Amino acid sequence: MASPVREAFRAVRRERFLPPEKRHLASMDAPVPIGFEVTNSQPSTVANMLELLDVRPGQRVLDVGAGSGWTTALLAHLVGQQGSVLGVERIPQLVERANEALTDWPWASVQHAEPGVLGLPEQAPFDRILVSAVANRLPDELVTQLADSGVLVIPVSGRMQKVVRRVDGDDEVTTHGWYSFVPLIR
Questions:
Q1: How do residues 90-132 score in pLDDT, each as one tens digit?
Q2: Is-above-0.85 flag for pTM?
Q3: How many domains would you assign to the chain?
Q4: Could you give the 3-state DSSP secondary structure of residue 178?
Q5: Could you list the active site residues?
Q6: What CATH number should be reported for the domain holding residue 103?
């Protein structure tokens, strides 16, 4: 039986989210530059992150560092039409490109990140938060945007961390391997 993440990868074609001159690189298991010193993440890394995130149909998901919109679309496939995915990206040109590529998933969109603010605190809580940029430390401001039993997956100082928000405030943090990402910018 195929996992939901594998099904999402089959349904959401990576090349759609790459610049035309880079689409021939879509099948490579490597990051692909998309301009503005940003990359479309390596597929195996994205798959690992999505497996850790354990997205379910109908959930509300925040995609921080949405870039090309590819992870936003993968998340939209996982939550289905009863869910919603909000992506944030700091580069306006990428926001525009991502939204153009997301037309098949009207329950997903990418908006411009507010400078100095991580995530979308005014629209919290979220069931799941995916961060595709490395932080120096676990950002409390994203943890507080999680719903009870919500999950955050984020690279911190090169190590992938999974945070499960607990009602009692004793959040569970686990570490899952080494990864390389562009820096998370507030």
A1: 999 999 999 999 999 999 999 999 999 999 999 999 999 999 9
A2: yes
A3: 1
A4: strand
A5: 41
A6: 3.40.50.150
